[in-house]
Each structure stands twice: as C-alpha cells, then as structure tokens.
Design brief:
Elements: E1 2-4, E2 17-21, H1 26-37, E3 41-46, E4 62-64, H2 72-83, E5 87-90, H3 97-102, H4 104-125, E6 129-135, H5 162-181, E7 184-190, E8 192-194, H6 209-218, E9 224-226, E10 238-239, E11 241-243, H7 244-258, E12 266-270, E13 276-277, H8 278-289, E14 296-298, E15 307-308, H9 313-319, H10 327-338
Parallel strand pairs: 2-3, 2-5, 3-4, 5-6, 6-7, 7-12, 8-11, 9-14, 10-15
Antiparallel strand pairs: 1-4, 10-13
Helix pairs in contact: 1-7, 2-4, 4-5, 6-8, 6-10, 8-10
C-alpha cells in the first residue's frame, strides 16, 4: 500500500474533505470530478485493479490499498487523520454478477470484508458520514411484469447473485453501525450506469453492456445478447440505464443530505424510471455509430433478472435529485470516449 500526494486546494464550506474509495474507477472518477467542481477536497483510495490514476486530477492524494487486505484499516485511519476526512463515499468492490456466481466466497471477502475494514477505520477516526454504493441487484427478479412496472425501495430484497447479496449485506452493516457507534449512511441503489462526462473518463471495462457493444462493432463482430426468452416485450432483459454524470450528481446530493440531520440507513434508487431492453440498447448504439447492429443471441447468464426499472420518487422528494440525460445521451458520450 502506498500514498501519493501532489498538493491540494482548500475546501469550501459544506462538503468539506471527502474520501472516495474506488475513486480511480469509472464511476469513482466521475464522483471525484464533480466533488472537486463542487468545492470539496477529495482523497482517493483504490487498489488500482480496475482503476486508473490518469483519470484523476494531479491535486488529488491517492492511497493505493486493497481494503480486504491485512493492514487496510490502519492505512485508512492514517490517511483520514492526515487529510482531515469528514465523510466517505464507498464505491470500491467487485461488481460482476456472473463472476460472483463462480466465486462467491471471494466476492464476500472483497465486498463485505472491505466494507468492514472501512467501518473500523471510520469509527476509529471519528468519521460518521458515509454514502454507500449499493445496487439494484439487491431486488433480484422483481415481479414487474411485461408492462415494465417500477420497483420501489420497500420492495422485497431477494438478490439472485452473490454480488447482490454482498450489497444487501453492506446496507445491513451500515444500518447496524448507526446503533453501534453512530454511523450515518445513505445507501444508493444504482441501476445500469453508462455514458461519460468526457472521453478521458469513459468506461473501457469489459462488463457493461454499452462498452461491450461498442467494442464488438469496432471489431466488426456481432454484439451478443444473453437470452431472448424473458417475459418482456421483446424477450430481452429490461433495465433502467442511468447516465454516470447524473449518478455522480446523486452522490453530491447525498453528501449534502447527510450533513443535515441525524439521518441513517436510508436507501434510495438511482435511475431514470424508464426501462430499455437490451435489444433497444444495441439498436441505439448501432444508430449512434452509424452501422447496422445485428446481435447474436446466446444463452442466459446466471443471476440476471428479467426486468428491473427504478421508482425514483423517494430520492427526488428527499434531495431534489432527478436524472436529466437520455439513453441516446449516454450512448453518444460513451461512443465519444470509445473513439
């Protein structure tokens, strides 16, 4: 583990100094970027397994550490005290559904043990505000039906994958920690994230749908669709796609929300409230690219629910947040980054 620092700027009142775990990743870098523009001072923690320090401003201190490794808590406490951290955003963790089915124990170690190490560090350093990266995967196969009904935060949580289970366990830990030592946490249940604020921050991973389709088309290959026999209008999975720029704004809103009263353990969907099928997304990518996108259908992936679309009433009422960008906006910005 190592820390690199290149200076910094004084924070404005309000957000203060925020530690972002996973801050060199695709979503994390967008959160860091927006926090800096909002006047916060930011410290990043990342193991760099999928993160890239080039995404970050040179002024941002970076602690390189695996949160699930021995000694992580002590390194976190030292960093928080050194930089005067006042709140944390926790995005670090593993997120591939199919991989979690194949390696469940490892996912629990990475995602749950990593959060436990962070809890210990926050408690020791006296930091009591946390925004937690949860997931719509906690809901499992929501019975929304072919009409694409929206799932509310009080819906049953029956995750289909170990990944979703670890996120739900994280929410439980955050709620329990309030009674134990006063942790105030907001749990943001992300839906499907896409797009980019600018090309340098684009998602080049091999796990999310839009970059997968872009990569396939760039290679002259047929994009793959995992199953077309789901109980949805066109037989392909239906998801709520949220622009990463809107998602980053939800984190800033959540930090401000936590600064208000003794709020704790609340969950909020972060999506658009609109569903798009996998086939629709592939068609949109092809249209933006100006090429024909003729997908090939392969077998279903284990752990994939048929339809999950967010009801976003709660986060709008509590924080005034609402997604602003469309699926076309996401695809267009993702394509700019891919190029």
């Amino acid at each position: 583990m190592a820390e690199h620092r290149h200076g910094g700027a004084s924070p404005e009142a309000g957000l203060g100094t925020v530690m972002v775990t996973g801050g060199a990743g695709y979503i994390g870098a967008h959160v860091v970027d927006l926090l800096l523009r909002a006047g916060a001072r930011v410290v990043v923690v990342d193991d760099m397994s999928t993160g890239n320090a080039d995404r970050l401003a040179s002024s941002v201190p970076v602690l390189e550490v695996d949160l699930a490794a021995p000694g992580a808590t002590a390194a976190l406490v030292s960093t928080m005290r050194l930089h005067g951290v006042e709140a944390a955003v926790h995005l670090a963790g593993r997120k591939q559904v199919a991989e979690s089915v194949e390696r469940p124990a490892w996912y629990y170690r990475q995602n749950v043990d990593g959060l436990l190490a962070l809890h210990d560090a926050l408690s020791t350093a006296g930091v009591d505000r946390l925004v937690f990266s949860s997931s719509a995967a906690v809901y499992g196969d929501v019975a929304t039906g072919p009409g694409g009904g929206r799932v509310r935060e009080d819906a049953a949580t029956v995750p289909l994958s170990p990944y979703g289970q670890t996120k739900l366990a994280g929410e439980w830990l955050n709620r329990a920690a309030y009674g134990a030592w006063g942790l105030r946490a907001v749990n943001l249940r992300y839906f499907n994230v896409a797009g980019a604020a600018r090309p340098a921050l684009a998602d080049h991973g091999a796990t999310n749908l839009i970059p997968l389709v872009l990569t396939a088309l760039a290679r002259g290959e047929e994009p793959r669709i995992f199953g077309d026999d789901y109980p949805t209008p066109d037989g392909t999975c239906v998801r709520d796609f949220i622009d990463v720029r809107d998602l980053a704004a939800a984190h800033v809103a959540a930090l401000a929300y936590l600064a208000g009263d003794r709020r704790h353990g609340e969950v909020f969907n972060v999506g658009t409230g609109r569903g798009a099928s996998v086939a629709e997304v592939v068609e949109t990518v092809g249209r933006v690219r100006g090429v024909a996108a003729a997908p090939v259908v392969v077998g279903r992936r284990p752990g994939d629910p048929a339809c999950v679309v967010a009801d976003v009433t709660r986060i709008h009422d509590a924080m005034g947040w609402r997604a602003e960008r469309s699926l076309h906006d996401m695809v267009r910005s993702a394509w700019a980054g891919h190029r």
